[in-house]
Amino acid sequence: MSLARSKAAIVGVGELAPIRRTVGESTLGMLARCAALALTDSGLEKAEIDGLLVGPQVGETPQHVPATMAEYLGLMPTMSNVVDLGGASGLGMIWRAAAAIEAGMCEAVLCVIGNHRNSDAPRSPNRNPIREFDVPFGASGANVAYALLKQAHMAQYGSTDADFALIAHWARANAQLTPEAIFYGQPASVDEILASPMIAAPLHKFEIVMPVAGAEAVIVTSAKRAKDRGMTAVHLLGAGEKITHRAVSQAPDLTSGPLKPSMARAFAQSGTRVQDMSLLSLYDCYTVMVATTLEDSGICPPGGFGAFMRDHDFGPAGRYPMNSNGGQLGFGQPDLAGGMVHVVDAVHQLRGTATGRQIQGAELALVTGNGATMSEAVALVLGADV
User: What is the distance between the alpha carbons of residues 292 and 288, in angstroms, rounded to a whole number?
Assistant: First the structure.
């Protein structure tokens, strides 16, 4: 990949295997272990990390999160911040790291996000405007909000339950190639997905992510440093971000979201099209999120995702491999680190290290992140070091 086209290079990744519950874990401890894995993978020394981006949910400290994280890790960064974009937080970190490097604020940024899932952990109250317009009318929680999006798509375009079930089926199928996946050894047919309990009509249980504990980390440095040191890099070629609303009651559109302009910007910056991608690493908290992302990307027309799903193989050997590790529906959603799961999988594919599920000749990946109810969006185009 041409250095002139690269905005930054991902040179290290770390990941804790997802588990259903944790006992006695601290978020700081999990983030530290994950960061150490990313540091080892990168070959950098800890003293070379001079930038820090961290997710908003660090249970041990409600304030001064970057400072607490830096102290815990023994870092003294010259750039630090919290990225709070819900499920899109991980992806938002990547381009912010690249921008900070280009601005000369730092040279190597640790991006880390995750959370424990201790059954006895106290929950903080959730206070925001959504409680004025959504919760009093029954739209409480993500299941109900995303059920509304699926219902709207079915009403507007005539899409069927079986169309959406295909998305979950492929997530489970690809998870069978990923031993670390929470649903490894548990494939699901379309009929099995449709037979799973109805959670919030028209959403079935297997169309919904199962939250797990886990953590993800990525280290970003300059393309020049990666080249000078002979690192196997993955390059950030384009990025886009957009926030349109928070509460689903305020959404400007229920069948298209902020990923549409985000992906368009990422494609324009990188000089690519969705059809050029070797991997579609799409945020998949619910099946309807994948459906709208496919349509908003331009790979199929509005309302056309069902036919597109029926016509293609989405495994590593298919024309459009999608979420090759199973995505969040198959691999698991480690809280707000769910978006970073897609980044790490794309890095492995573009570095040729996706053992057991490698896409042959993978050069380009579209990675998407989504926060709230199709509200906060980040899209990245990543390129292999070829």
Answer: 6
